[in-house]
UniProtKB/TrEMBL annotation:
Fungal-type protein kinase domain mapped to chain residues: 530-942
Compositional bias segments (type: Low complexity): 783-798
Region (Disordered) location: 754-815
Protein name, per record: Fungal-type protein kinase domain-containing protein
Domain of life assignment: Eukaryota
């Protein structure tokens, strides 16, 4: 046999090339012999064709292809069978090695510990959860548990005999209720809400010009790419965490539905269990048979773990938290003794039959991901807050609910993590898909539609057109990554302008896009960057140094279309709008845009929040895109949101007002302050003077008021006529008129757009109807106007309007809020009290401000209700005829005897100075609360100011701007409850400049907080007691200086 060259050849192949004295193991024979057999078969076929006529085929067959004969082929075939049996029963050499301490495993060049693997898995789980949240497209106010059906698979029915193509138990109508999908079947579970809810349909559907609804092809394709990406990540997690992986042949035979070509599914439900039937091919070539394997999923997957097991676990978790010492030392999130009391309430909630695990899920995730302790405790507070019933309503209509906006921060670094939470609350519900948006804000740009069509037509011309209907804009970056879109956007705008300049008789525009997403713009408290915007600078580029005061239209870019939502692109643009409004003192509103993938949305932000247009694809709707961009470039200042009643002539700015004798101009000396917020009163103050009397300073105050509130101008006029001392004196007030009508948000700024037609509109909470009882008549004839009118009388000696008369009102109904642009001018000018030139001057000013408050209360019958750092003024200029110290801002003031509230929603104030009782919202507002606020103002100044204008940020107290009002009340109680603790705090935190006031502030604490607690009985003598303490301390300071 060994005389055969074939056998010799195969024997030589068996020699190990690395060790000539040894042969390969049997496991290596099978591949070589299989190749030999295959080559032999191919050679026989090749030779057979040529040898068929010569009769050689039979001889070749006998020599090479017949088993059982003593031939080389028979020998090789038998050796291969032996090799296969040995290989299939012998463990192969592996490459996975554990270190000697069994702590680290290595595979080739990769080495990791189980901890490393756990961290990797945790990261992938977070990313998968993030991807899933985006794919589910939940509304901002939707709970996942309510919107997503919980698949209790063990309750489902199945029909194993149904061989219909593409059928599975998900289409069994008996399961419709469990799947919450109706008769359309589970396949329509996502499609049904898209069709039913407008706020979802605009994500994937659009209205064609012919009136038919069409899908947004690119958006749908992008969504399915995102689904594939999520499933890939999920498969990776399943593979890593599910033990020994199944063989590929098993995985490939898994099918959840019948195929259209007759193959039966392999996933079934039987007797409440989900079973899989898979084929196992190992050894098939040897045995010629398949193994069929039946497996059943564990009950956790089926949803059977349900409430009982979950609640057992959560009860154990809450018990463990209660046992921690920190639970007894941490404050309650409400009005309880400590966090332990809150956890007891949470235990009751967890044990309830209707407990919703969504409420505690963030806490579980924080523990699972091994977050730092402070994060876990934050999630604990969130969980107990969810489980605590809302506070009982106030017993008095006079109470005004507290709210906060981003303009109420005192001595804050404005870190984004804090600002964003407050900004979300401030903006409220952002309405998108508002019908008529484009016409309202772009329709007045002369010739825009004609020009845009002409420019687009030019873009379609040439061998390499800039725009094609089939493919969209030339150079549009695939994937829409931010950097690539910025590189595409700015040059395109230049090209559009060049075409417009060349072919149209449009005026040249100096505006250009500015793209500096990685460079903070100047002019904000914290570093803030802007993706893209339009500025009045034809040379604007990547290296330009720009300020927020130069940004005309801000823009936000996102590569993912699914980022077009409230928590992402919308909030980011709202943050930019806040900076623009804060930096530009004559800006009434801000226009902007978001570009998420190829989907553009136009925005308008004002003192009520924000509204937006429908979303459109810039590549599919080229005309709309060109119209929007040219509109931004050609709008005049009033169309961009600037106040036309504030004009610039040469190097002077004027504010126009209308008094008895017609229009007057007040010369602007300087801006005093502008509250940095989007939604809210947004107060702006300027120091001005009359052209004929430059020596007498006046102060103009612009703000956006709820029309239901008592007008500040009327209150100031009343106070002045009653001889109230040390309160800013009335000069004039009016409702600003723009475009020939009263300037309010709903009718004037938003051009009458109806937000109830927005695609995501949801009715807001009910608010009380406007109350004329607590509001002075707006016109001299006694009639009332919601928006108000300019008064023909501005004199402080004018008679008061007619007496207030009660009037009936209809039952409370949901109402759409509004704000009116009001202007008040007073005859007193000063600087904020914290800028006082010395501690003695500060005390004197505070004493006189308390005297002013007492006069306003006792003589004017009003409660000011907003004593804060910027509402107490001091005048140290001997040439200034104003009060030496005085109160300003009667925005929130009310008549003490008023029977009902004004009906306006929300009180915006500086929470750091609010009285404890106001924060707890369990007392009717009293003068005692405002006197307590005087204490907190002095306390704050002593901690944050080391001299006039030398303010600082103190982290320990910065959180007073952000935390829950109940928690803040608890902190304030802790500050003043014990005298020795208070003195220790004062010595540690008062600046060197104000250390001398520790004794004075402590004496005030004793009076304001009798026995270290809150007052229970109003004390009219508190006025004189506080003034006496301040006067005595001031005298002591003067003596020590002498």
């Amino acid at each position: 046999m060994f005389e055969s060259p074939v056998v010799v050849f195969l024997s030589v192949l068996g020699i190990d090339e690395k060790n000539a004295r040894a042969f390969h193991g049997a496991a290596a024979y099978s591949p070589a012999l299989s190749k030999f057999v295959k080559l032999s078969q191919m050679l026989v076929i090749r030779r057979a064709v040529a040898a068929a006529e010569d009769g050689d085929v039979e001889r070749f067959k006998e020599a090479f292809l017949v088993q059982g004969s003593r031939s080389p082929f028979d020998w090789a075939y038998k050796q291969r069978q032996i090799a296969r049996r040995i290989a299939s029963n012998t463990t192969g050499t592996g490459f996975i090695i554990w270190t000697e301490d069994c702590q680290r495993v290595a595979y080739h060049e990769i080495s990791l510990t189980m901890g490393d693997l756990g961290d990797f898995v945790a990261t992938q789980v977070k990313l998968a959860q993030r991807d899933l949240n985006e794919l589910l497209m939940l509304h901002l106010e939707e709970r996942r548990s309510e919107a997503i059906p919980f698949l209790r698979l063990y309750k489902m029915e199945d029909n194993h005999a149904n061989n219909q193509g593409e059928w599975s138990f998900l289409k069994d109508l008996r399961n419709a209720e469990i799947l919450q999908c109706g008769k359309s079947g589970a396949g329509q579970w996502l499609m049904d809400p898209i069709i039913e809810h407008e706020w979802l349909s605009f994500e994937f559907l659009s209205l064609a010009k012919c009136g038919r609804i069409k899908r947004q092809r690119k958006r749908v394709e992008q969504y399915f790419r995102d689904v594939d990406s999520f499933l890939e990540r999920l498969l990776l997690l399943v593979h890593i965490t599910s033990g020994q992986p199944a063989r590929g042949t098993e995985i490939l035979t898994l099918r959840h539905m019948n195929t259209s070509n007759g193959h039966h599914r392999s996933i079934f439900i039987e007797n409440g269990l989900v079973g899989t039937v898979t084929s196992y091919h190992k050894g098939y070539n040897i045995t010629g048979t398949l193994k069929v394997i039946h497996r059943y999923l564990p009950k956790e997957v089926l949803g059977q773990i349900g409430n009982e097991e979950t609640q057992d676990f959560l009860v154990a978790l809450v018990s463990a938290l209660q046992a921690l010492p920190a639970a007894r030392h941490l404050p309650s999130c409400r009005s309880g003794k400590n966090l332990l009391e809150d956890l007891s309430r949470l235990m009751t909630t967890v044990n309830a039959d209707d407990f919703d695990i969504e409420r505690i899920l963030p806490l579980l995730q924080a523990i699972l991901h091994k977050e730092p302790d402070h994060v876990i405790w934050d999630r604990v507070y969130d969980a107990v807050a969810e489980s605590t019933p809302p506070p009982r309503p106030s017993s008095s209509f006079q109470q005004t609910p507290l709210s906060i906006n981003t303009g109420s921060f005192a001595n804050s670094a404005e870190h984004r993590k804090h600002v964003d939470d407050v900004l979300k609350e401030e903006l409220g519900h952002l309405y998108v898909g508002v019908p008529g948006f484009f016409d309202a804000f772009f329709g007045d740009v002369p010739g825009l539609r004609t020009a845009a069509q002409a420019v687009l037509d030019k873009c379609k011309e040439g061998d390499s057109p800039l725009y094609q209907v089939e493919s969209g804009w030339q150079g549009w970056p695939e994937g829409a990554k931010e950097k690539d879109v910025l590189s595409w956007f700015a040059p395109l705008i230049d090209q559009l302008l060049d075409i417009a300049d060349e072919h149209l008789s449009k005026p040249w525009s100096p505006r250009r896009p500015l793209a500096q997403p990685h460079r903070p713009l100047q002019g904000s408290t914290a570093d803030r960057k802007l993706d893209i915007g339009f500025v009045d600078d034809p040379d604007a580029g990547v290296d330009s140094k720009c300020r927020w005061s130069q940004i005309l239209i801000p823009g936000e870019l996102k590569s993912n279309p699914s980022a077009d939502k409230a928590s992402k692109a919308w909030l980011d643009l709202g943050r930019y709008a806040r900076e623009v409004l804060a930096a530009q003192d004559s800006r009434r509103f801000v226009l902007g845009f978001t570009l998420c993938g190829p989907f553009l949305r136009l925005w308008e932000f004002d003192r009520l929040g924000g509204i937006a247009s429908e979303q459109f694809d810039v590549n599919e709707d080229g005309l709309q895109f060109v119209s929007a961009m040219l509109g931004f470039l050609w709008m005049n200042e009033a169309q961009l949101g600037f106040d036309p009643t504030i004009v610039t002539v040469g190097d002077k700015r004027y504010i126009e007002i209308e008094r008895e004798n017609g229009k007057e101009r007040l010369v602007v000396d300087k801006m005093i302050k502008r509250v940095p917020c989007v939604a809210g009163r947004a107060t702006t103050c300027w120091k001005v003077y009359q052209e004929e009397d430059p020596g007498t300073p006046l102060v103009v105050k612009d703000s956006w008021q709820y029309p239901e509130r008592e007008e500040e101008g009327e209150l100031l006029r009343e106070a002045t006529e009653k001889g109230v001392r040390n309160v800013a004196r009335y000069f004039h007030h009016e409702t600003v008129r723009v475009g020939g009508q009263d300037d309010d948000i709903r009718a004037n700024v938003r051009k009458g757009l109806d937000i109830t037609k927005a695609t995501n509109y949801k009715p807001e909470r009910s608010m009380p109807p406007p109350n004329n009882t607590g509001r002075r008549a707006s016109r001299r004839d006694g009639s009332s106007s919601v928006a108000g009118r300019k008064r023909s009388s501005s004199s402080a000696n004018a008679p008061l309007p007619p007496s207030k008369r009660p009037c009936s009102s209809s039952p409370t109904k949901p109402a759409i809020v509004n704000r009116v642009h009001r202007r008040v001018i007073v005859r007193d000018y000063g600087k904020a009290i914290y800028k006082a030139s010395s501690p003695a001057s500060l005390l004197a000013a505070l004493e006189q401000c308390i005297e002013g408050y007492e006069s306003l209360h006792t003589r004017g019958g009003m409660l000011q209700r907003d004593i804060s750092l910027n509402n107490l003024m001091v005048n140290e200029d001997d040439e200034n005829p104003s009060w030496r110290a005085f109160l300003i801002d009667l925005d929130l003031a009310i008549h003490e005897q008023r029977e009902m509230s004004s009906g306006a929603r929300g009180k915006t104030g500086t929470r750091a100075f609010m009285a404890i009782g106001v924060l707890l919202d369990d007392e009717q507002h009293s003068f005692m609360h405002d006197l307590e606020s005087f204490f907190w103002v002095l306390f704050w100044i002593c901690i944050h100011y080391d001299g006039p204008n030398q303010g600082s940020i103190v982290p320990q107290y910065e959180k007073w701007n952000y935390i829950d009002t109940k928690e803040l009340a608890k902190l304030k109680k802790g500050e003043v409850g014990d005298e020795s603790d208070f003195l220790g705090t004062a010595e540690a935190t008062f600046t060197p400049y104000y250390q001398s006031l520790i004794s004075c502030v402590n004496r005030l604490r004793r009076k304001v907080f009798p026995d270290g607690g809150r007052w229970r009985v109003p004390n009219p003598k508190l006025y004189s007691e506080m003034k006496e303490i301040l006067r005595a301390a001031r005298d002591d300071l003067k003596e020590s200086e002498e």
